[in-house]
Specification:
BirA Bifunctional Protein, domain 2; 3-stranded antiparallel β-sheet; 8-stranded mixed β-sheet; alpha+beta; single chain
């Protein structure tokens, strides 16, 4: 403890000395970067809307008979993510190394193995040490620690590996039906939240100068392939937003995380599909993007992604191959006689993968087939409230740690 106090104190001494050299006192810095925001009307109104947003989503999910799951912030395994972050923080405890969670994705899968539940939800914490903007630009969407409401639903399709391999048309029909089911579920959740915010926070929206529409179901849907073909590989979210007046819309088929379903992936005879040419129609995942609407002019801001999710890989064989091919792990587990012979090469994935391989008394997999997603709380507020009053994601948080905003976080 004394070492931590000394280390942090010395770091703050260097920071204070640096700002003093530019003519700024510590008081000046705290007033400008913290006190000004904490005392502002804008943060009050945004926080009032946040309260309704979170409560209304939780009420909707409980009303759909999903069960609330506890938060998991430390684990030996966490979401590897398909994009660059600075590092995964680690904590030593009880003689072992635990990671801070990027998301609760693996915890959600394991919880859904319970045969009685329909699904789970959790207002989960996330710690992601995002790389700051290489061009020193305020990107407005990243936070080192943030909240998202995670949802995972059971599919209960019981498609085994034999059918996965030999009944492509039948499996595709099931997957397309399930995509419609999960998209409709999430759309109804967002509609409910928008109605509640308009009912309880009409004045807060006016004070922030924005309009929140209650969207019409179904939301417009764009596939990534068609968007990139039309607009290129960069900024296609914003371009898609300009193609639709809807405040919310879907983008589907984004080749991303190892647990997002790609089907068909494994092929009869031991082969795999060519991932370089895989179409969006074979990638069963999705994003929701959202825009704000100016109260006075009706002008919309560029769209931002606020929710991501997917139908999940559910069979042991493709789970392993996706993990290997996404370079999450260098080797496949060797499971014999109730143990993993090469567990030392699997990091924290060993116990998870053993569970994924297990069968019940009837020889059926215990690992569940699920679908779900997570909606970022701060990211959604920023997307919907952005305008003259809310200009960056920091503006909707009391303690948001944006890597593009501060050289050091004081609170």
């Amino acid at each position: 403890m004394e070492d931590n106090i000394k280390f942090i104190g010395e770091s703050l001494y260097r920071f204070q000395s640096a700002i003093n050299e530019s003519g700024i006192s510590l008081e000046d810095y705290i007033r400008e970067n913290y006190v000004k925001k904490w005392l502002s009307d804008e943060l009050y109104h945004a926080s009032a809307i946040r309260t309704t947003f979170v409560n209304s989503i939780n009420d909707f999910l409980a009303g759909e008979n999903l069960l609330n799951l506890e938060k998991v912030m430390l684990s030996i395994i966490t979401d590897p993510l398909a994009y660059d972050i600075e590092r995964t923080p680690a904590i030593q405890y009880k003689g072992h190394t635990y990671l801070t969670t990027h998301s609760m994705i693996y915890s959600k899968f394991l919880a859904c193995s319970n045969p009685r539940l329909r699904g789970i939800y959790v207002d989960s914490p996330n710690i992601r040490l995002e790389i700051e903007s290489p061009t020193n630009v305020q990107r407005g969407r990243y936070l080192a620690d943030f909240s998202q409401i995670d949802i995972e639903l059971k599919r209960r399709r019981n498609v085994d590996f034999s059918r996965y391999m030999n009944d492509r048309d039948g499996v595709l029909e099931i997957l397309r039906e399930d995509m419609d089911i999960i998209k409709n579920f999430i759309e109804r959740m967002i509609v409910h939240a928008c109605r509640e915010i308009n009912r309880k926070n009409a004045d807060d929206l006016v004070r922030l100068g924005v309009v929140l529409e209650v969207p019409t179901v179904p939301f417009p849907t764009f596939t990534k392939d068609r968007l990139t073909e039309k607009y290129g590989a960069r900024n296609y979210e914003e371009a898609a937003g300009e193609d639709t007046p809807s405040q919310f819309f879907w983008i589907t088929g984004l080749l991303r995380e190892n647990y997002d379903l790609v089907y068909p992936y494994l092929t009869p005879g031991g082969g795999k599909i060519d991932m370089k040419g895989i179409p969006s129609e074979s990638i069963f995942n999705f994003d929701i993007c959202a825009k704000s609407i100016d109260l006075k002019t009706g002008k919309q801001t560029p769209a931002k992604e606020v929710l991501s999710g997917a139908i999940r890989e559910w069979l042991f064989e493709p789970i392993i191959e996706r993990i290997i091919d996404n370079k999450v792990l260098p080797v496949r587990p060797i499971i014999r006689n109730g143990n993993i012979e090469n567990i030392n090469e699997l990091g924290g994935y060993g116990p998870f993968l053993y569970f994924a391989s297990m069968k019940d008394a009837d020889g059926k997999p215990i690992f569940p087939d699920t679908m779900g997603g997570g909606i970022g709380v701060e990211r959604t507020l920023y997307a919907l409230l952005r305008g003259d009053k809310i200009t960056k994601i920091d503006d909707v948080t009391f303690f948001g740690k944006n890597p593009d905003s501060h050289p050091i976080y004081l609170y």
